[in-house]
Amino acid sequence: MNIDPYMDLDMLTAVVARRFSQMHRLIFAAITPELIIARHSTNFTAITSDFNDTVSGQLLTDVFPEFVGSEEAIRAVLNGEKQFFRLNHINRQDTSGELRYLSFEIRPLDEQNPSQGLLLTIEDTTEIGKMQQWLVQERNELRMTEQALTKANEKLEQLNQMKSIFLAIAAHDMRTPLTAIYGYADFILERKNLDDAFIHKAVGVIKAQAEHLKHLVEDFLNLDQIQQGKLIVTPQQVHLGEALNEVQAALKVLQETREITMQIDLPPHDVWLFVDENKFVQILYNLVGNAIKYTPKGGRVHISTELEASRWAVIRIADTGSGMSEEEVSQLFSLYYRTDDARKSKVSGAGLGLYIVKMLVEAHGGQIDVDSKWGEGTTFIVRLPLAQTETAV
Fold this sequence. Notes:
Heat Shock Protein 90, 5-stranded antiparallel sheet, 12 strands
């Protein structure tokens, strides 16, 4: 390429300005003190393609409504009160419907004499604007993800703390019956000439505590299956009276120790349920066991059953305990939840039983409700399906 050695400085400046404007998608215009566009660069319509060559002679705010309301700020540049006025990343749609981002800047044509006129430069910052918009969107999404992760982490920490508490309580719950079993077993082994009545009583305690351990283990296994979504029930015909007798026998020592009177009222004919036998016994054991444990010494537990619509057995387990508040009732079936009265009592527990009972009942397509008022005792109402051969009376 041959370069004219006699090219004057003005011509060179013009070439550089043209190349610079092409590289940066920049256009410019001279503005009179009356804010009228006097002249503009030849590439004016390259960026503002919605304009034509008749832009010259028009009022700045007519061509660019973006400046409406900014006249005082522009005149402050004319008066030398401000060095420049700028509008960044203004959205504008061109004739093709594409959204563009334009940045406007107004400066004096002559900084030594700003009142002579203004220089308007317009830069197409579409790519920068889109990038900034994308970055803002990504930042917002990252912030939302961070918040979600923070909440999830807090929940995991809470669950981890609850798990630690549960393990501590579970270990305590298992230690109590084991201590009784070891104590009575050692006593029998170390002593000679024990009468049959004492041995019978000791063996009864050992059996009852072993039964309690068995049901604790059942609770832990059921909880694990529930949390993994692998709880399986195998329904079969189960005799209600026999299941209640089994539970009453397992809780006999606890009932006698607390001097609880237990009354069981069943229909005059056999009642057969369509339930998983082991899980049904676990439901009864937890509910009846709770009724005995949280009823003061000398109190009463009443178990009754009625049939509903030839489809359901409605089992009510009522006690004469202290009852619960409405707030406590609303949280009663939550995992690890224990009422204030339960926490203050000497009765140990991990807050698993009622949560597991609810899950087991619902796994059978049944329903459990509770009716309780402070100072008036508590009644649990369990609805479970009858076997097909069962009819209401």
